[in-house]
User: What shape does this take?
Amino acid sequence: MKRLFQHLLIACLAAFSFIKAPAQSTPNIIFIIGDDISWDDIGAYGNTKVKTPNLDKLARNGLKFTNMYLTASSCSPSRTSILTGRYPHNTGAAELHSPLPAHLKFFPEQLKQKGYFSALAGKWHEGPATERAYDTLLVDKKANGEGGELQWVNLLKTRPKNKPFFFWLAPYDAHRPWSAKTEGPQHDPVGDIMVPPTLVDTKETREDLRSYYNEIARLDHYVGDLEKELERQGIAENTLIIFTADNGRPFPGSKTRLYDAGVKTPFIAKWPKGIKAGQVSESLVSAIDIAPTLLELAGVTPAETVQGKSFASILKTPERAFRKYVFAEHNWHDYAAYERSVRTNDFLYVINKRTEFDNGGPIDANQSASAKALKSAKANGKLTLLQNDALLTPRPAEEFFDNFKDPLQSRNEIKNKTFATPIAELRKVLKQWQDETGDTEPANLTPDWYDRETGEPTAAKDKRGEMPGAAKKADYINAKGPF
Assistant: This one.
């Protein structure tokens, strides 16, 4: 009898050994956020010169969004908005380097609470309160390498294998100052550069853009390595990879601007199990929608404070209409500012409450070789309307652009009576958004930290003023509105 029992036990164990563990129902998520990279500086978005084979492959094998918009064209306000699903003026961190307050919820924190292994590698730009959102923080610059990508594959190899994972991968590429040497393809300043219409085509500008392209190519190189490791581990099928960026290129006319050159962003999503390859979505989407989307895919209910809405349905039906309006803001980033915008598919409307200031970008952009080439050309009277815009002062209090007839948004049609109806509509919509989200204009803006012409530090440096629209704990309200 004892022997019979042993045989039965062995037979049962053998049978159970063929029963597979239940498949992971929620996807692994890898969120790659490039630093200062314009949407049209990726091959998949039409740049025929920049060498981004791995990002282009990602787009071919996934879903490419052509109308994804950020809420700010500055690093940390843009990132904190994504982390919280809230507009910058509702995060308490509307200005550059302002840390997120501890009372807010961060979507990686919610994923961690759901059982995800959560990790950040690279640029940690959101303040100490977000530390609780991650099991692992790899923020040592030396360990992360010159471009910030050196730990990506190591993170994949050493993660806990019994949990789904979320990675916030934040390379330093392509933020200034430029690296002297980069991994990946190199670019020739003569034949491999597309000079954007906001800049003058000079040797100095092309050299500046060459370094920028090389850093994009380095990021692309590591995206390829990451995909190879996912395949090697056999987990590529149920891993959602997203590539996006926090704002436009670090050049005059792009970074800190509320035009498409500043807030339109690349957004590519590849997930073999959940997204058909080779698709494009033209749906209008805001960066505040990223958090609720990823939470829905992970089976998590977003925090009450999230102002965005999930676009998970677009992953299945890319042609589906989603938003009618997207909103953005420009607050202090080295220089005093207060601008707001609302965009539809057809039009862009911008208001500026500090018209006495120019907008040549932050210190790294307006003191660049490209900026100096612009200023030199201006002195000789050789700038186009679009090139001169970054140096224009005073600036208009209102701007209105026809996105189809003027895709570069170079002609301000605010006084054109042909557009009286859409101008009136967008004035009303922007005012309603400001009222419903508590967007108030501070009496005193944080002043310039640098001289706008020379770049020399001012007496105000390191003496922060009142933060535009800073959210207090008492204002911890979900102000969604119809947007």
User: Anything to note?
Assistant: The chain has two domains: 28-321, 328-475. The first helix runs from residue 2 to 17. The CA atoms of residues 275 and 316 lie 6 Å apart. Residues 1-21, 465-483 have pLDDT under 50 and may be disordered.
